[in-house]
Amino acid sequence: MSGRGGGEAARPSLETVAERAGVSRQTVSNVLNSPQLVRPETIARVRAAIEETGYRPHRAARTLRTRRSHLIAARMHAPVDGINGAVLDSFLHALTSRAEQRDYRVLLYTAEDDAQEIAAYDELLSDFDLDAFVLANTHRNDARTTWLAEHGAPFVTFGRPWGVEASHGWVDVDGAAGVYDATRHLIRRGHRRIAFVGWPEGSGVGDDRRSGWRSACAEENLDVSGLTRSVEDSLATGRAAGAELLNASCAPTAIVCVSDSLALGVWTEITARGLTPGADVAVIGFDDTPTAAVIGMSSVAQPVGDIAEASLDLLTQALDGAPGGSAAAKQLLLPPSLVVRASS
């Protein structure tokens, strides 16, 4: 009888995975440590074999061999109104899940603002053997990326470096294209008075999304005078903006919003007047939160899983010292998709 409890199965090894995937041991190692060296179809086959066999690398030995901790830090943002921030929650979940598939772990931390986040960087780098950071919610004059670059800490951002040129890797969603598609959808449905509820000017993300609405309306020579509102992001401000638009002498028949938070506020005002979203006034949000799906509100969905995967690809390339090629090779703009529901 075995001294390990009657024939306990041996722990799966690198060779076990290689045999299951039909590749060499070195290829499995490359998938785990340097995926940019391996073809996508081979990566998929090896990861499937890892999942099937339950293989887990020995972390201590791997750290000694690669001089990496395989630990990535990312900020967890506080929830605001149950809707605002849902995309970042989904992104963190996708990032953590996909990082685990590459044998990385995500260390979460909190901060109230940029200053606290930068202070957290200093503390985290002192207390943990971090490999890299993943940042989100980029904005104009973002001091966080400047600090990390000056201190030589590898990082990638979910969001563009608005208003400046940057050499670091970033992944973002083409918000202008998403709102453009939403507005074109409404035009095809026969709407000519299409309003936009956005954030105050100066927000890189908000200005980008607003430009998609303007472009689509300009193509059809639609009159947009008096059809835009700029407010802070909340249900209450969205409802107030919706009330102003609907009270106008020539009210819109459709309203596109920069976020689901504002769109839900508009939705609330529409229903409070005894009107039906979609039948009487169309409304479309942005982010395709679970709330939007539950109430049947059309919204622009961000490819959160693809963003997380691309962010990790850029990080591993940077950590491996792989040639980045052109700056564009480290800067990815992904297309969103319009999810049409009853509200439009």
Automatic annotation (TrEMBL):
It comes from Actinospica acidithermotolerans. InterPro entries: HTH_LacI (IPR000843), LacI/GalR-like_sensor (IPR046335), Lambda_DNA-bd_dom_sf (IPR010982), Peripla_BP_I (IPR028082). Keywords: DNA-binding, Transcription, Transcription regulation. Residues 12-66 form the HTH lacI-type domain. GO terms for molecular function: DNA-binding transcription factor activity; transcription cis-regulatory region binding. The keyword Coiled coil does not apply. PANTHER family: HTH-TYPE TRANSCRIPTIONAL REGULATOR GALS (PTHR30146:SF109), LACI-RELATED TRANSCRIPTIONAL REPRESSOR (PTHR30146). SMART domains: HTH_LACI (SM00354). Residues 1-24 are annotated as: Disordered. It comes from the Bacteria. The keyword Transcription applies. CDD domains: HTH_LacI (cd01392), PBP1_AglR_RafR-like (cd06292). This is LacI family transcriptional regulator. Gene3D superfamilies: 3.40.50.2300, lambda repressor-like DNA-binding domains (1.10.260.40).
